[in-house]
Design brief:
Layout (H helix, E strand, L loop, with lengths): L2 E5 L3 H13 L3 E5 L2 H10 L2 E7 L7 H11 L5 E5 L4 H9 L4 E4 L4 H11 L22 H14 L5 E4 L6 H10 L8 E5 L5 H9 L16 H4 L4 E5 L6 H13 L1 E2 L8 E2 L3 E6 L3 H6 L5 H7 L2 E4 L10 H12 L6 E2 L1 H9 L5 H15 L4 E2 L6 H4 L8 H18 L4 H19 L4 H7 L4 H12 L13
Parallel strand pairs: 1-2, 1-3, 3-4, 4-5, 6-11, 6-12, 7-8, 8-11, 13-14
Antiparallel strand pairs: 9-10
Length: 466
């Protein structure tokens, strides 16, 4: 029986991971601190190490670094309740074979452990990297961070999809900067900005005299990106003729300049992006299916800002600090409410532009709603305020409970149970973290959780309806 080392300070999470390991036929060694885990590593022979980033005595990334130095043959699976792009990339840099964000999907955890603990599993090679500016705590962004981290440690083609203004170019730069090609050029070409004949010349280059005005031979973007990364933005807009030439390059790594006869060969990594549904473009006959499959070996989907309103405060704070000059600025509560209700058709780029406008017209340190453009303040696309949505939903729920004859105690317990479940999920199933972040007494929280788990009332006797 093979052994798996689990380094996790939350007993419930560690026990669940241990149960999954045993279900898969492995012995599980549980450790609640980084130091204890490293001591067990020195004494045992493990097929896999599972570790949390948020350990009580040291960062899980530091533990991972020690594991990679002491036992490089052991694959490692990182789990974390506070995923961000820097952590995801750092984990892949240090050789993590897997990276999962809490709350954990147990079938996904089981399948990941099964794969990594097999004899064929090997650690991911380490790559030098630098931090990125992508920001977001929403689940959609957490998934995106993991996809970007995978792309950083691969040389396969990447297709980045998502609406305009979501950061596709920034994601491409992050992938290049954190890849093995980071010392070579990063070259960008916006395919929708040029007519077909100019795009072909810019991409593949041309020979002298190949068309009117071609007074000299010229390298194209393919040759300029030699050894590095070529980023083709809005790839869905290229013509069928250019698609055919690009397919040849992707398959054979060779191409011919416009007006040329010589086959040229270039080694580079291709990253493409589109704000269209490329699968739909294939179905409509506007994009070659064979080229599509060649380009989306790895795919990253950038979420729209309206899908992650909880990230707006962090994004706004970052932009205010980076474009606000020397005068510190902050958002008034009403301003943040306005920004979170707006649907942002231009996404993160539109948010930055709106904040630049607000900074330009404001004179003090507090950004108010009237500092923003009129179309943002008066848009019909504004969604109801979160408080209004909650109030409406709660009112309807209470009416149903009253109609069913529920007591105040029953309604209170149901609401508190839902609140605790959501909060525990938000904090990765860790009651100690929940208690600390919400300033609740840890013992009180544990009593509430146990009482609700047993189906008992959360209201002490003598303190209910009267």
């Amino acid at each position: 029986m093979t052994s798996i080392l689990i380094i996790e300070d939350e007993h419930a999470v560690a026990s669940a991971l241990g149960a999954i390991c045993k279900r898969l036929g492995h012995d599980a060694q549980l450790c609640s601190s980084g130091q204890r885990g490293l001591e067990e590593l020195a004494r045992g022979d493990f097929a896999l190490a599972i570790l949390d980033i948020g350990l009580p005595d040291m960062s899980g990334l530091e533990v991972l670094k020690q594991i990679r130095r002491r036992a490089p043959a052991i694959p490692s699976l990182i789990i974390t309740a506070h995923g961000n792009l820097d952590n995801a990339v750092a984990a892949k840099k240090l050789g993590a074979a897997g990276y999962l964000v809490k709350p954990l999907d147990l079938p996904e955890v089981q399948e990941t452990i099964r794969q990594l603990a097999s004899p064929a599993a090997v650690p991911t090679p380490s790559v030098q990297a630098s931090p990125s500016l992508l920001i977001g705590a929403a689940p959609a962004m957490q998934r995106c961070f993991v996809e970007i981290a995978h792309a950083c440690t691969s040389d396969a083609p990447v297709l980045i999809s998502g609406p305009t203004g979501t950061g596709k170019t920034l994601a491409a730069r992050v992938i290049h900067t954190n890849s093995a090609r980071s010392e070579a050029p990063f070259v960008t070409l916006h395919c929708s900005a040029l007519p077909e004949h100019l795009l072909e010349s810019e991409l593949f280059g041309h020979e002298k005299g190949s068309f009117t005005g071609a007074l000299t031979s010229r390298e194209g973007h393919l040759e300029r990106a030699r050894g590095g990364t070529l980023f083709l933005d809005e790839i869905a807009d290229i013509s069928p003729a250019i698609q055919a030439k690009l397919l040849r390059f992707v398959e054979e790594r060779t191409f011919t300049r416009v007006g040329g006869r010589e086959d040229l060969r270039v080694d580079l990594r291709l990253v493409t992006a589109t704000n269209k549904d490329l699968r739909e473009e294939v179905r409509a006959g506007r994009f070659r299916e064979d080229l599509y499959y060649r380009l989306h070996v790895l795919e990253i989907t950038m979420p729209a800002l309206r899908e992650r309103p909880g990230d707006i405060a962090a994004l706004a704070t970052y932009f205010l600090g980076s474009i606000g000059g020397t005068q510190p600025r902050q958002l008034a509560p009403a301003t943040l409410d306005l920004l979170q209700r707006y649907t942002w058709p231009g996404n993160v780029r539109e948010l930055r532009n709106a904040l630049e406008h607000a900074i330009a017209v404001s004179s003090g340190g507090v950004i108010l709603p009237h500092h923003f453009p009129r179309e943002l303040r008066e848009t019909r696309d504004a969604a109801p305020a979160p408080s209004d949505v909650l109030d409406t939903a709660l009112g309807a729920w209470l009416q149903r409970q009253l109609a069913a004859g529920a007591s105040y105690r029953e309604m209170h317990d149901a609401l508190e149970s839902m609140a605790l479940q959501h909060l525990l999920a938000h904090f990765g199933g860790k009651p100690t973290v929940l208690a600390r972040e919400t300033k609740m007494n840890r013992v009180t929280l544990r009593k509430k959780v146990l009482r609700l788990d047993r189906g008992e009332s959360a209201i002490p006797d003598g303190e209910d309806e009267g």
